Amino acid sequence: MSADSSSRLLRLNKAIADSGRCSRRKADELIAQGRVQVNGLLVQEMGLKITPGQDRIQVDGHLLQSEGKARSGHIYILLHKPVQVVSTARDPQGRTTVLDLLPSALRRHRPVPVGRLDYFSEGLLLLTTDGDLVYRLTHPSWHIPKVYNVLVRGRVTTEKLQQIEQGMHLAEGEKLAPVQVSARQAGKETTWLSMRLIQGIKRQIRRMCRDLDLTILKLIRIQEGSLLLRDLPSGQFRELSAHEVSALRAEVGMEKEAHSFETER
Fold this sequence. Notes:
CATH topology of the largest domain: Alpha-Beta Plaits
CATH architecture of the largest domain: 2-Layer Sandwich
Largest sheet: 9 strands, mixed
Strand content: 15-25%
Mean pLDDT: 86
Number of helices: 9
Structural class: alpha+beta
Order of helices and strands: EHHEEEEEHEHEEHEHEEHEEEHH
Shape: elongated
Radius of gyration: 21 Å
Distance between the termini: 25 Å
Helix content: 25-40%
Low-confidence stretches: 1-7, 66-72, 257-265
CATH superfamily of the largest domain: Pseudouridine synthase I, catalytic domain, N-terminal subdomain
Number of domains: 3
CATH class of the largest domain: Alpha Beta
């Protein structure tokens, strides 16, 4: 590694995340698994710092882009994930993944799905090569609200709505934060629920409805932070505008930090 003290050093996990390969958390796992090399040497030191643009980073033998190249062209995609599509880059069972829905010109940049929607859920899913943003949006310390429309069978009583709003205990023992919820009749035998969540509990809505004896017929995520699904058709995608990217980064403190860094310089 370069010993030039005038160079701006960067933690290895952040450099890997900046390349769009994965989040910083996943980068730490790759390092621990012995899958990362710097300048041809296997990395054994967690927290190692490298010199961007000079040190060569390889993951599983593949050379990563330098930080400068990655930052100059990040991709931000809003996808309407259909049902029966998995929210991962690859699937060992051979099922359709969210990356399969993108053209090859975008797939080759290896955008990362931000969080997940389960197999039978649909709606808004963000994919990006911005590793810092992936890290912030998926980290428990940042409570970015998400809004879901949930179609359930039957009518939902006031008592059940109150349980949701007050914060439930799931059957497995997790204590849930209060959830903002509203209900409207969809038909004689169905009800639409609108839920605003601030936690990232796995399959939270499905487990809440299970414990309340509510059968889910459809589950759609329509909003994440300031991003809105709107009328984007199922299976289609669009790239975020510069304004949307800036607003989303600001919600997790990144725009403020970038401004502070430039001011200090």
